[in-house]
Design brief:
Layout lengths: L8 H11 L2 E4 L6 E4 L3 H8 L11 E8 L6 E11 L2 E5 L5 H11 L5 E4 L4 E7 L3 H7 L11 E6 L2 E6 L8 E7 L3 H11 L4 E3 L1 H11 L33 H10 L3 E8 L10 E4 L2 E12 L4 E9 L9 E6 L2 E8 L10
Parallel strand pairs: 1-11
Antiparallel strand pairs: 1-7, 2-5, 2-6, 3-4, 4-5, 7-10, 8-9, 9-10, 12-15, 12-17, 13-14, 13-16, 14-15, 16-17
């Protein structure tokens, strides 16, 4: 996935998704399949969110947590086909580890298959994404986080009402050998469609306050600390990390992920230090310039003991200069995701 394409750069790609439509080739994302009698129940007893909240044909954001520490091995989208079939889309670098953990824990009769190379994923995102897919004869009347199968360019694919931009959009899971044909069909149907790279993907997701694994979520950052408790089925009898996470939730996290918005021209970046007065109280996990707001924004882990909250001012050390930032509650922009 390129950082950006040649015709316009990150800001043009970002703007296309916010105002029209863009497409991301996110085929680097992992793909894994869990099948067999009790497959869905097994996944539900392993990953954080509660598959019982959804039914077949729905997708769910969930977390694979370490059982001993509660840290996040990866965040995942789970596609529930039925009681014996769950398709998972983890992050690329973590696919092998997620598959390993599931394979080692799987009961007899449940099979976990790494299908990373078998499928491509094309994310069509933006206010005009539905009109584009409708032109191609693809279904677009899904509820948010639901999916169905369809045919395009002579191949069967999965169309899911998901994405990581905050805009109305779809992700197409396509057999790898048909990816180029589907990509070409999208651009033939709408020549104004913008190909988008990793740079725009990062600015778009940061504007929404969506976490990036390895920065805002990690083995050292739990769902409680990252304010991702909404993706945890707290009442479930079993999931990896349940005991330690319940204890952390009850005690209160020692640090919390917050949003920061620059009061001036500074642009925060990951690993920059956050100060309240003379005290170092945290660290930026993700930071960028918001093309929509025209201001620097960030996610940062801030110590609970610092006693700061939404509306308070802190400072970020940007290359040796303290820059004032206001603590805000993400998202940083209002969008039409649903």
């Amino acid at each position: 996935m390129p950082l950006e394409y040649a015709d316009g750069g990150v800001i043009a790609e970002h703007t296309a998704v916010r105002e029209n439509a863009g497409v991301f080739d996110v085929s680097h994302l992992g793909k894994a399949r869990v099948t067999g009698p009790g497959a869905a129940a097994f996944v539900n007893a392993s990953l954080s969110n509660d598959l019982g909240r959804i039914g077949p044909g729905r997708a769910q954001y969930t977390l694979c947590c370490d059982d001993a520490t509660g840290g996040v091995v990866d965040d995942i989208i789970a596609y529930l086909y039925d009681d014996e079939h769950v398709f998972l889309i983890p992050n690329a670098a973590n696919t092998a580890e997620v598959v390993r953990r599931l394979t080692e824990a799987a009961p007899a009769g449940v099979t976990v298959t790494n299908e990373h190379d078998a499928y491509a994923v094309l994310a069509v995102q933006g206010p005009n994404s539905a009109a584009l897919l409708t032109t191609l004869g693809l279904p677009t009347d899904h509820e948010y986080m639901s999916f169905s199968t369809a045919t395009l360019a002579g191949t069967e694919l999965v169309v899911c009402r998901t994405g990581y931009t905050g805009e109305h959009g779809y992700e197409l899971v396509v057999p790898s050998d048909a990816a180029v044909a589907v990509w070409d069909a999208l651009f033939e149907a709408d020549p104004t469609l913008k190909p988008c790279g990793l740079g725009a993907r990062d600015t778009l997701r940061t504007e929404m306050g969506y976490p990036l694994h390895g920065q805002d979520l990690s083995l050292e950052i739990t769902p409680v600390q990252a304010r991702s408790g909404w993706a945890v089925g707290w009442s479930k009898p079993s999931f990896w990390g349940r005991d330690v996470l319940l204890a952390e939730k009850a005690a209160g996290a020692r640090r919390t992920l917050v949003g920061l918005e620059a009061q001036g021209r500074g642009i925060p970046r990951a690993h920059m230090e956050v100060y309240a007065g003379d005290a170092r109280v945290g660290e930026v996990t993700s930071g960028t310039f918001s093309p929509t707001r025209k201001v620097g924004i960030a996610l940062a882990l801030v110590d609970a003991a610092a006693g700061v909250s939404v509306g308070d001012t802190v400072e970020v050390d940007i290359r040796g200069r303290r820059t004032a930032m206001t603590i805000v509650k993400p998202p940083f922009v209002k969008t039409s995701v649903r």
